[in-house]
Design a protein that fits this description.
By secondary structure, the chain is mainly alpha-helical. The protein has 7 helices and 2 strands, in the order αβαααβααα. It is globular, with a radius of gyration of 14 Å. The relative contact order is 0.20.
């Protein structure tokens, strides 16, 4: 996945997700890390989308943070890798951006795969 195909907000969320994973001792970058960071972006479009769907952002954030605590932790390992589920989200976001004729992958494109991929929806808070 080309990092330059993401909007600045998307890049920020991905970078923050990497930092969050590192701070938690998680070697694998998971959709949960990204979701936490998307939900914390005050100036983005994700929070208004969540509200428009009738969901409670604070509840989703709290559940996601609790789910992060159950992920395996490692110590002494250098770097992280993108897990299969997050890679699928990136791939589906790219497909959706292309379908909509958007040049860049935005935060709303990153949010869409949670609705599309039922396995991820079942596993994650919304």
């Amino acid at each position: 996945m080309r990092y330059d195909k993401f909007t600045i907000k998307s890049q920020d969320a991905i970078q923050e997700a990497q930092q969050l994973a590192a701070s938690k001792g998680h070697q694998q970058l998971d959709p949960l890390h990204l979701l936490v960071c998307l939900l914390k972006q005050q100036q983005g479009v994700v929070i208004p989308i969540i509200k428009k769907l009738g969901a409670n952002k604070d509840e989703i954030l709290a559940k996601t943070l609790r789910s992060l605590e159950s992920l395996p932790q490692v110590s002494g390992a250098q770097g992280q890798y993108i897990g299969n589920e997050l890679n699928d989200i990136f791939t589906n976001a790219l497909v959706e951006a292309n379908r909509l004729k958007d040049e860049y992958i935005s935060t709303e494109h990153l949010l869409l795969p949670w609705q599309i991929k039922t396995e991820c929806c079942r596993k994650n808070p919304f």
